[in-house]
Specification:
The chain is of the alpha/beta class. It has a single domain, classed as P-loop containing nucleotide triphosphate hydrolases (Rossmann fold, 3-Layer(aba) Sandwich), CATH 3.40.50. Helix content is about 20%, strand content about 25%. It is built from three helices and seven strands, in the order βαβαββαβββ. It has helices at about 10-20, 40-50, 95, and strands at about 1-5, 30, 65, 75-80, 100-105, 120-125, 135-139. A seven-stranded mixed β-sheet has the order 1-7-6-2-5-4-3, covered by helices on one side. The longest helix has 12 residues, at about 10-20.
Length: about 140
C-alpha cells in the first residue's frame, strides 16, 4: 500500500502521471472516491502520463471513452450510472478489461464482481481541513 497527500489538482495529476509511467497492457486500475474527490483530475493526469493526446473528461453518460495515441490505449470507464453489472455486457467490457490497453474505472465498487483480483485500487479522499488537499491510497 502507498499513500500520498497532494495539495493541488496539478499535484494529483503529476502523481497519476507517475503511476501511468509504470502501467502495463491489461492492467486495471479502480478509481474510487466521493463526488468531487478528484477522480477525473486523476484520470487526466494518468492520460497525460501515457502520452494520450487531447482532453480527457469523465465518460459519465457514455460509460466508456477510448483514448488512443499514447504509449498504451486508455479505456476510461465511469460506471456511476450502472444499475446492474450485467449492463456492462452491452459495452463488451471483457474486450477492454483483457485487452492491450489500460482500464481506468471510476466508481469501480459498483461493479466489483467483475473486477479481477489483480486490479490496482486507488482511493481519493478530500481533506476536511484544506480544500485542495487529497489523500490518495494505492493498493
Amino acid at each position: 500500500m502507498r499513500q500520498v497527500t497532494t495539495h493541488s489538482p496539478e499535484e494529483t495529476k503529476a502523481f497519476a502521471a507517475e503511476l501511468a509511467a509504470h502501467a502495463t497492457p491489461g492492467q486495471i486500475i479502480c478509481l474510487d472516491g466521493d463526488l468531487g474527490a478528484g477522480k477525473t483530475v486523476f484520470a487526466q493526469g494518468f492520460a497525460e502520463g501515457l502520452g494520450v493526446p487531447g482532453y480527457v473528461n469523465s465518460p459519465t453518460f457514455t460509460i466508456l471513452q477510448v483514448y488512443e495515441g499514447g504509449r498504451l490505449p486508455l479505456y476510461h470507464f465511469d460506471v456511476y450510472r450502472i444499475g446492474d453489472p450485467e449492463e456492462m455486457d452491452e459495452i463488451g467490457w471483457e474486450e477492454y478489461f483483457f485487452g492491450e490497453g489500460v482500464c481506468l474505472i471510476e466508481w469501480s465498487q459498483l461493479i466489483e464482481e467483475l473486477i479481477p483480483e489483480t486490479a490496482v485500487h486507488v482511493t481519493i479522499e478530500k481533506s476536511r481541513e484544506v480544500f485542495d488537499d487529497r489523500l490518495i491510497t494505492v493498493e
